[in-house]
Amino acid sequence: MTSPLVLHGYAYSVYTRAVRMAGLAKKMTVDIREIDPFDPEMRRFNPHPFGRVPVLAHGSFQLYETRAILEYLEALAPTPSLVPADPQSAARMRQVMGIADSYVYGPLVRQVVSQALFALLDGATPDQLVITEGLQNAATAMKVLEEIAIEGKVLNGQSLSLADCLLWPMLDYFRQVPESAESWAQCRALERWAAGMAEHPVAVQTAPDLGGYTA
Fold first, then answer.
1. Angle at 110 between CA 114 and CA 209, to 5 degrees
2. Tens of pLDDT, residues 121-156
């Protein structure tokens, strides 16, 4: 790996944080370049219509989509591995990653967190209808994650995986929302996992400073 790894991302992006966590866990040197995802300059790094962060540059090779970036880091530095050796656990890890992208990010982050946390930080009035809808939409995903945490193949607090890196930034924000308390009360195994993740070095070192938040 002769070319430097450069991550173009946004400090408050859950996906940027996921890649940073994985890089730290694998003891990789990744140069973090802050970029506003709403800035037209972003198109230089992700020229497609999506225009989202993060984007990883490795020499002339550029890669977007967080799950692809996480798998690329794993391939570049397979030790320490963030993919379980057991095939069932590895499959469950990828299942959790799919759940996070498809069923967790939308309701928990785009609906609940954006209104109950970031709207307040922006000085705006949270839309309670959006928050309520997000909590309702999140119920199934939280239940499924709880079942997976109980099973213990991943989300077990014993070994860090790519699933932990992808899911934690989303649920870390969610934990900071008072309206999430009822959801957590019904997910004790997942709550134990979250309590452990909150103290994990890669989570602590990548935690965004919300006190310095600017929209």
1. 45
2. 899 999 999 999 999 999 999 999 999 999 999 999
- Burial environment of residue 192 by CB neighbours within 10 A (0 to 12, 13 to 18, 19 or more): middle
pLDDT in tens, 160-186: 999 999 999 999 999 999 999 999 999
Secondary structure in 3-state letters for the chain: CCCCEEEEECCCCHHHHHHHHHHHHCCCCEEEEECCCCCHHHHHCCCCCCCCCCEEEECCEEEECHHHHHHHHHHHCCCCCCCCCCHHHHHHHHHHHHHHHHHHHHHHHHHHHHHHHHHHHCCCCCCHHHHHHHHHHHHHHHHHHHHHHHHCCCCCCCCCCHHHHHHHHHHHHHHCCHHHHHHHHCCHHHHHHHHHHHHCHHHHHHCCCHHHCCC
Cα 130 to Cα 176, 182, 183, 214, distances in angstroms: 17, 17, 16, 22
**Which pTM value belongs to this model?**
0.93
